[in-house]
Design a protein that fits this description.
A 4-stranded mixed β-sheet has the order 7-4-9-8, sandwiched between helices. The protein has a 3-stranded antiparallel β-sheet with strand order 1-2-3, with no helix packed on it. The mean pLDDT is 92. 19% of the residues lie in helices and 39% in strands. The protein has helices at residues 83-95, 152-160, 167-177; strands spanning 5-14, 18-26, 32-40, 43-48, 55-62, 67-71, 74-76, 101-108, 119-125, 146-150. The protein is built from 3 helices and 10 strands. With 178 residues, the chain is an alpha+beta fold. It folds into 2 domains: 5-40, no CATH class; 43-177, Alpha-Beta Complex (Nucleoside Triphosphate Pyrophosphohydrolase), CATH 3.90.79.10.
């Protein structure tokens, strides 16, 4: 089977983080369909590892679900941004730390049924506080972040108990275990 064919596309929403289009496509099996697609530049997800082997999680309020969540630090890519540079930027912004090692692990699609977002996971380590030569970090307007350090077993227990419900964090722990 071949790929789908885009017959038409209409942008119905343009936002800061994503756009939405309504696409008319001919699918690989030959049928035509109208699909609503969230167009997203992609994001990076950090798996920050401290010198003593703990993982750093961030706790922040997520308005969409109406609660605070513990999760792996993550952020959207800026248009054309290098993935590794984005990982370093997000580590600085969300954790206030700068990694000396950045290792690309895997890319996953969190919602491929309607969204183009690809999440690329990075293990970051060799974490240090910024020095006077480093640029200042800037958090997004919707971020108020607490940071916690946990062992892999502690995070696993928090997932099983329902205290961690963020899927990118669950997937990150699985990636780390491979």
């Amino acid at each position: 089977m071949s790929d789908s064919t885009l017959l038409s596309s209409q942008r119905v929403y343009e936002g800061r983080i994503f756009d939405v289009t309504v696409d008319r496509v001919r699918l690989p099996h030959g049928r035509e369909a109208t699909l609503e697609i969230v167009r997203h530049e992609g994001s990076i997800v950090l798996i920050p590892v401290t010198a003593d082997g703990k993982l750093l999680l961030v706790r922040q309020y997520r308005h969409a679900v109406g609660r605070f969540l513990w999760e792996l630090p993550a952020g959207s890519l800026e248009s054309g941004e290098d993935l590794e540079a984005a990982a370093v930027r997000e580590c600085h912004e969300e954790l206030g730390l700068i990694p000396s090692r950045v290792e690309r692990l895997q890319t996953l699609f969190p919602t491929p049924g309607f969204c183009t977002e690809a999440m690329t996971y990075f293990r970051v380590s060799g974490l240090r506080a910024p020095g006077s030569d480093d640029p200042p970090a800037h958090q997004d307007e919707d971020e108020s972040i607490d940071v916690g350090a946990y062992t892999v077993d502690e995070i696993g227990a928090l997932i099983v108990s329902g205290h961690i419900v963020d899927l990118k964090t669950v997937a990150g722990l699985w990636i780390l275990s491979q």
